[in-house]
Design goal:
Blueprint: H1 9-13, E1 17-18, E2 24-27, H2 36-42, E3 52-53, H3 61-70, H4 73-83, E4 92-100, E5 114-121, E6 133-136, E7 145-149, E8 156-160, E9 167-169, E10 174-184, H5 187-207
Antiparallel strand pairs: 1-2, 2-8, 3-4, 4-10, 5-8, 5-10, 6-7, 6-9
Helix pairs in contact: 2-3
Length: 214
Amino acid sequence: MPSGTVIDYDAIRAADVQHVPYDYMMGRGALRAEWFPELRESFPDIRVTGFHPLSQMTVKGAFAKLIEEIEGADFTAAVSDALGTDLSPYPTLITIRKVSAAHEGRIHCDSESKIATLLIYMNEGWLSPEGRFRVLRSEHDFNDYAAEASPEMGSFVAFRRADHSWHGHTPSVGERRVVQIAWVRSQAEIDRKTKRHNRSSFFKRLFGREKAAA
């Protein structure tokens, strides 16, 4: 494997924070290019749609190193510096998506249990107009957006949770790799969310149905 870190912390710190319609930032280059082949190869083999917590999978190789860095203090410090809010007191919930269904990505606002969220995308050569994250001005219209991010390798989006932090992604079917990191108010909230994810995944496998991602 290459030497050095997988994450380029300076790329995260360099992102410009926007404050309308809520506090968010977008950027590229969160992952160092020399790690791309190993990250592609070691990405978890998830075959069910939606986001899945780390407890449901085994991580290895370069992807395991990425997770180790995400769980480290340097990553939280970089995001804190960029967003202008100290996230160090809060535990993180890391969830992984590999496959999207058409009904996922609907407009929503995160629950009050979340302080902030960062998404790191891991897709090579994304050319489709679909599957792009949008910062929305309201809960009613996907076309009323302030900014849009392509889910290509190393692109990232982060935002502070607010009562009006509406977001989502345009419908996409098939592979759409993303790591989601949420800073949550308490470990109890993480345990509750993980239990819900585990229950949802169980019924997806049992009945072969695909429900909306959390």
